[in-house]
Design goal:
- The protein has twelve helices and two strands.
- It has 309 residues and is an all-alpha fold.
- The chain has a single domain, classed as MetI-like (MetI-like fold, Orthogonal Bundle), CATH 1.10.3720.
- Strand 1 and strand 2 form a beta hairpin.
- Helix 9 packs antiparallel against helix 11.
- The protein is elongated and about 80 Å long.
- About 5% of the residues have low confidence.
Length: 309
Amino acid sequence: MAVNPSRDLAGPLKPADQVSPWLQRRPNQTVRFLRRAALPLVGATILLLIIAVALLVPLISPFDPYRQDLRGRLQSPGWVDKEGRSHLLGTDQLGRDILTRVTLAARLSLGIGLVAVAGAGVVGVVLGLISGFYGGYFDDIIMRLADLQLALPLILLALAIVALLGPSITNVIIVFIVTGWPVFARTVRASTLSLRQREFIEAARCLGCPTLRILVYHILPNVARPLIVIASFELGKVIIYESSLGFLGMGAQPPTPTWGNMMAEGRAYLDTAWWLVFFPGIALVLTAAAANYIGDGINEFFDPRNKRS
């Protein structure tokens, strides 16, 4: 009888129950990876699409977002004017193209959100590092300011500051920086308190490493992940509050379009021109939801409990 040498060298085939446990776990790990990555991917896709539309549509749109055309006012989505140009989302009460104004408002809202979150993050990180690393009077003063800030309703405080400084884009950004830093500061402080007693920090001190270098190169990288998650949530919150201030007339002033003041102007025409409120509102909802999806996804993806499961 002929013998198959390759079969003899390879040995007997393994039954299904003797396959390597790593190979058995690999499909499940892939499914869990895709499940954890789904939320940030969906959020990032939506946000990138909104950013792309906000950047490209005003560049290629034939309509001036500020030019009024009273003969073409309150036209429904898809209306074609006498020049053969299509208004995909219709026109508002002054005959201005809704699509062009919504995308221009997206630029403004995203710009305000990113600048405000970045500013609040910088202030909060610096104060949180000082509070957690030095302690003492620095910690008491900074944390009492943060507690006072968090005790006040954000929207009421924002309204008070804007009423005092006057409604403008710059003042809105200042409001969100002033009201947003405590969240970052408390998170960084808590992490710094636990990290400053670790062996690698003590070793850096013994080697004569300057305090600034310890804070920037040894402590700050270890608090980066929660800061990214917080920043994602704060971006969605700032965009919503910016629209709320615009709706109340305390944000950017007309004719500058924002989602908030567009909805405020269109609420009087809900019965006859629903698109004046619907399209700015859906843009606001999608942008805020995308930012929250990114934060939720990043938080779940890096959660150690998910990695052990």
